[in-house]
Amino acid sequence: MITAHLPAGYVLGRTAQRYGVNRWLMLAALVGSVLPDFDLIWFYLVDDRAIHHHHYWVHIPGFWAPVALAALLSLRMWAPKWLPPARVFFVAIFLHLILDSIAGSIAWAWPFSDHLFEFVQVPATQSHFIWSFILHWTFSFELMIWALAIYLFVKATP
């Protein structure tokens, strides 16, 4: 996924709002849907692209699973009013990782394996990797997510 994480977060936020009235649900969905890609700041400015950013901890499901479990259990006990947005936040993070698994690669088996899993490998057919992704058939998933997000936005606008 190159462009559809935020629209996917919007779709998740709209869906969550249908099942719960909490003003923080949309914000939680939007932030969670793009949070793993904040590692791009480190990737470009510090690491000089030495290691693929999907190897960083923010793209590792084995990191997020115990964090989510601990956070959700803690909130359930001490701050239950924050539980719905926290759930949406962590679902959005895992949605990001699932979407990255379509044509990107994620270490789903970590800590048992560093192997990066992907559903479809996008070959480098163009001079720049972005064009290889945009011209690959898997980009149609991004276009569908965008279309759904735009539809939901227009439908919700009075």
Pick out its properties:
globular
| Overall 3D form | globular
Spatial extent as radius of gyration: 17 Å
Question: In whole angstroms, how far apart are the ends?
Answer: 31 Å
Mean pLDDT, nearest integer?
94
Could you spell the SSE succession in H and E letters? HHHHHHH
Write the layout of secondary structure elements.
Elements: H1 5-19, H2 25-34, H3 39-45, H4 61-78, H5 83-103, H6 129-134, H7 139-156
Helix pairs in contact: 1-2, 1-5, 1-7, 2-5, 4-5
Provide an overview of this structure:
The chain is mainly alpha-helical and 158 residues long. Helix content is 60%, strand content 0%. The chain is built from seven helices and no strands. Helix 1 (5-19) runs antiparallel to helix 2 (25-34) and helix 1 packs antiparallel against helix 5 (83-103). It is globular and about 50 Å long. The chain starts with a helix and ends with a helix.
At a glance:
By secondary structure, the chain is mainly alpha-helical.
